[in-house]
Amino acid sequence: MKKETVIKILDILEETYPEAECALDHENVFQLIVAVALSAQTTDVSVNKVTPQLFAAYPTPQTLAQANVEEVAEYIRKIGMYKTKSKNIVNMAKMLVEKFNGQVPEDYDALVSLPGVGRKTANVVLSVGFGHQRIAVDTHVFRVANKIGFVHEKDVLKTELALMEVIPKDRWTKTHHSLIFHGRNCCVARKPKCGQCPIKTYCEGCEE
User: For the chain, how far is it from start to end, CA to CA, in angstroms?
Assistant: First the structure.
């Protein structure tokens, strides 16, 4: 896809979804990294329903590090893989306390060393929590970016690297959020609303 076409699509998406930003409720970077870790294979809406009580009970890395895993699991049992996630966030909190002085590190390699933190989570924390330009590729971004024709890749990592080549760096974070909103509101997986799509003129995957 030509650069000028990419720019046109980005402009339209940003105009269509001016409110596009991280949908996970959080008040600080610690709450953000926990919420993103919990959101794997689960909707943001579901995560937002369980985190208020979780954060009230364990407001800091120190309190979560000392928590009983089974008790943490009770707070998040309504989301997918809650048993595994409860172990991960407790162990993540322990490492934050033991290795990072109770602070979420502003470094990619340090972030992915934490239990339950993969590439996507690290990128979201760096972009939303610390203001870095990043493209975090989740299921929406992967599907929509390839359907539109921004990239033509078969896996998440290759999609992220390819997007970094075609999207101007100063728009990486905004593009991430715009693609998620477009995937949720218009370019839905099962039945895309191509007739209502604001970028259908430019979309390679338009089904109309």
Answer: 19
Q: What CA–CA distance (Å, rounded) separates 39 from 90?
A: 15
Residue 118 has pLDDT above 80, yes or no: yes
Q: pLDDT tens, 126-161?
A: 999 999 999 999 889 999 999 999 999 999 999 999
Q: How far apart are CA 188 and CA 11, in angstroms?
A: 20
pTM for this prediction: 0.91
Contact in structure between 176 and 134 (CB atoms under 8 Å): yes
174 in Cβ contact with 182 (< 8 Å): no
- R_g over Cα of the chain: 18
The three-state secondary structure class of 151 is coil
Which are the catalytic amino acids? 120, 138
Question: Do the beta carbons of residue 183 and residue 144 sit within 8 Å?
Answer: yes
Rounded to an integer, what distance in angstroms lies between the CA atom of residue 85 and that of residue 102? Answer: 20
